[in-house]
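A quick aside before the break. I want you to see a complete sequence-to-structure record at least once, exactly as it would be stored in a machine-readable document. Don't worry about memorizing anything.
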Amino acid sequence: MRPSFAYKVLLLGCLLVPQLASAVDPGQQAPDIFGRSLTEDRKYRISDFRGKVLIVDFWASWCGPCIVSMPELDTLRNRMIRAGYGDRFEILGVNLDDDSDRALAFLKLHPVSYPMITDLLGLGAREFAPRKLPSAYVISPTGRVAFIYYGYGKGYGQELELRVLEELKAKGEQR
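That is the input. The structure line, written in tokens, reads:
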């Protein structure tokens, strides 16, 4: 599996013309990106999850680390549901393949229970400008980017769980 042409162009553009990239940083409002679900007949947008802590996870079928990170995210989601946070937490996967059939084939081999959207045109990737894949953005209930985990490494799931719990337990958006 290889990177999509659109993603390569997007990354090259971000490197050559960084002033045009609209990357978000912790503390900023998350862009309200949207896309068609890969597994349902509906669309999702980030604002659909306002009031919840949301992890926005950018991935692709050609991303080797995504094979490991996505099941960890699914385990985290299930753990949060069992802990009673199901109504206050969700994960939204954003696929960056230029062919949704590749993404669907990947999901058949590596199924997850959280919603997945496709970013065929690269608009979501342009707004967030993930530096590597996977990239997981923890979004606060008010839509603020609280934390970003670029790539995958030791402690990935634990770090994201800690950051999600911090947001779930926060008394307000004073931080």
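Two observations worth writing down. The chain has five helices and seven strands. The chain has one domain: 5-17+30-169. We'll return to this after the break.
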